[in-house]
Amino acid sequence: MALIAIDALDGKPFKDEVLSLVKRDAMEALNAQEILTWAVENFHPRLTISASFGAPEGMILIDMLHEIDPTTRVFVLDTGRLHPATYDLIDRVRDRYDKRVDVVFPNASEVQEMVQEKGMNLFYESHSNRKLCCKLRKVLPMRRHLADFDAYATGLRRDQNLNRADTRKLEIDSVNGDLVKVNPLVDWTHERVQDYVSDRNIPTNRMHQQGYPSVGCEPCTRAVAAGADSRAGRWWWENDDVKECGLHIQEQTDGSGI
Question: Which domains are delineated in the chain?
């Protein structure tokens, strides 16, 4: 399948052209490798991969882009509360792919003020406290980091939870400065993810073998029973309809999903 080219002005693609592709769902027929190739051809070097190193999907994107263009950058949000196993995986990526990972930290003074006022484990006290912690440790740091890019790729899948069921393969991220957001794996199933990881012998977070299908911050993640929903161990004290940190909540405008 021929990839869809878009014009550019001073190295930055026209927003209207990307918006047209979004509204027409023009990318939905492309597979993951084709979408990533399209993103590299149109946005490199101002393209980056968002990887949590707490789920296999980010590792799959790194593996695919290593073959498409190994110079594509990847970043991880270090909240200061991650599991040691997550840090170990970041180092394994450096070893296997000879790739530098951009580690993005929160603003120390903001976090310090928050914990002094509300406590170290404030997130257990209320939903608003938990959202504040996610905002300062994840949402705002990512927004600052993405200011240097025109597009980024994520490992979101539609079957991860109800909030992601309508995610498209190509979106305009209005929350992060109208960046182009590509989600190549949205139509993948859990089984397909596991097959890819097994076939390619991709390193993953060792906590997956300990009952953690999704690994976030240490105090906000726990092991779940075999066969449970992959996000069941994240913020387990909250209702399913609010289990998002805010990184992937888009502003709705005209019903187009952007």
Answer: 13-206 (3.40.50.620)
